[in-house]
Specification:
Strand content: 25-35%
Radius of gyration: 13 Å
CATH architecture: 2-Layer Sandwich
CATH topology: Beta-Lactamase
Number of helices: 3
Shape: globular
Order of helices and strands: HEEHEEEEEH
Length: 128
Amino acid sequence: MSDPVMDAYTQAYNSSGNMVQAFGVISESGQVLWQSNNWDLTADASTLMSAVKSRASSVIQNQVKYSTMRSTPESLVARNVQGSGILILTKIDTTSDRWVVAWADAQAQPDGVYVDVDRAAKTLRGKI
């Protein structure tokens, strides 16, 4: 049996042209439920969720500051102005407290990579 989160990560990676390079799932309470082995969300999961809820103008992940480009109650897209990439949070579904967090290469188009991550997140409905 395959890992549904790894499958979603692979989908986002492939559909983004290899731009999505880190992936995780966190709960609204800040619990890390799954993360790819190339980053650690544990220290920042709670503050990431707070940033989404408050529609913060910036968010910090792994000591890197990202400026919020777009924020809704169910998503956040932020870019590091020094070129350290794009951070995306999107809710798996409206009735869940689970969120996908993804990091994409700085060369990615924010709107396009958001769509790739959101589509991958939606495949996780009821699976995590």
